Every structure is written in C-alpha cells, then in structure tokens.
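Reagents: none. Just compute today. Exonuclease 1.
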Amino acid sequence: MGISGLLPLLKDIHRSVHLSNYSGQAVGVDAYVWLHKGAFACASELCQNIPTTKYITYCLNKVRQLQNHNIWPIIVFDGDRLPIKMRTENDRHKRREISRAKGFEYLRAGQRDKAQDCFQTCVDVTPRMAHELIKELRANNIEYIVAPYEADAQLTYLNKIGDISAIITEDSDLLVFGCSKVILKLDHQGNGIEIRQEDIANIKEMRFWSSDKFRHMCILSGCDYLESPQGIGIKKSIKLLAKCEAATVSDDAMYKIYSTSTTANSPKLPPNYYSRFMLADFAFQHQRVYDPQQGILVPLTPFPPDLELTEELSMIIGP
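Predicted 3D structure written out:
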C-alpha cells in the first residue's frame, strides 16, 4: 500500500507526536489499517475459517485508546473498488492465494511456524469482517463512514472540510491525496509519527515544489493506479521532475526529461504512458467521496470549470 519509498524519503520532516496533542479534536482512522493489524494476530484462524473476534477486539481497544485521550474518532471504511485500481487488486489477490496455498502445504507437513508466516502474508480483510466491526461501532455509538470508494480519498475530504484534524493510517497515499496531517506508527502508549503536508516543500530534493508536482512525482514512481515505467523508482522520479521547471508536467515535458535522462539501451517510456498518467492524476484529485454535511457524493476537489466529464473520466473517479 502507498508509494514505495516515500516515507523514508520524508524522514527529515517526521515529527514525534502523542495522542494527547489531539485532545478535544476529531481524528479520522483508516479502518482497514486497524483491521489488517488485528487480522495479523489471528491470521491462522481466519485463513482456516475458524471463528474468531480477535480482530474486533483489537480495533475496539484502539478506539478506546483515542477516547481515553479525549479524541473523537471517525472510522472510515473502504467502499467499492475503483476500476482504475482493478489490476493492482487482482495482482494482490493472486499473491495472497499463492501464500495461502503454501500455508496449507506447510500445515499438512506439520510445519506450523512456516504455515503461520504464510497465513500472515496472505490474510485479507473481507467485507464480512468490516461488517462485524461496523456492528460493534454502532453498538458503542462510534461514528463511522463507509466511503463510496477509497477510504484515503474520503478521509482527505473530511480533513479538507474541517471535520477531522488528522488521519491515523499506515498508508502514504493520503499525502498524495492532499491531507494536511497524518499520524503513523501509533503505539500502545499513544506515541506516533506525524507528517504535515506543509512540510513537504522543505525537503531538500523537493524544495518549493507545488502539491501538483509532488503528486506527479509519486505517480511517476509507481502507485496503485499506475505502475512505474521500467527503471524508475522514487529517487529517479525526483531527479526527472526536478528538470521540469513548470509546476505541473506536460506530455512533451515528460517525454523530453525521460529521453534525455536515459541511455540508448534504456527502456523507453510506453507510448500511452502520459494518457494513463493523467488518468491516475485525475483519480487522485477528483475521486468521488461522500459529503456528510450535504448528504451527497462530490468530487474530492471541484472539477475545473471547463472540464468535459466524459464517460471514461467518470469511470476513473467512480461510476
């Protein structure tokens, strides 16, 4: 999940934070982050369809941790899958199935430790597990939202309209969506790492970059919506975009900076790459989210006034 290599790149702007710093405020939570952590502890049971509520207990304990610091939690769940992300989801599903099969092979051979490792690799959060947690949240009067599509976009929207002050997650994608603050690596004592959107422009390699250029760098390095061109990771992506003087990247500029930075034997940028790049960019900017104040679906950020919302673009942000 997230942009590979992004969090280490931002290490100079990591701030130590404690939950007490958010006392009296509302904080958003990526529900699937907690569900995945809870599922990790009971992966063997889940993969073997042995009834367990350990993942529910884990999540409710985390809710109580926030409440004990006078924080109002808003738990946000993923909704439907975006078509643009289907390839990534299918690849992940295949890898999980391979690990699951290996786990059962080890189990039949009596190698329980190796089986456990495989089950922890392949365990997935199912809609049924999310529903079980939702029932407990209702029973305990804990606010939650099921996003129309991705929780990351929904959480960012809640942050932008002022409903939440920060977001608890382990996913760097939230910074690409444009949220103001994320809290990562939250421990049982309430300590974590805070990253602020406003600090990103202070990173040496990206000094004075616009939020658009930062987002473009992340997409070019590879994300859930678009695989990176062969040979490009996050460091190469920064070097390439540093050569682009504009705040955003045009078709001509991208091919120019890529072609002048590679050798004759280097892989070429795919012919349709820029069009796919712009679709990924559109998904990060305008994915459909739920506005709790109006009770309707809206784009994460308003469409440009001259935009013609084609059927293709509409599918990209959620049909």
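The two ends are 23 Å apart (CA to CA).
Action item: order primers for follow-up constructs.
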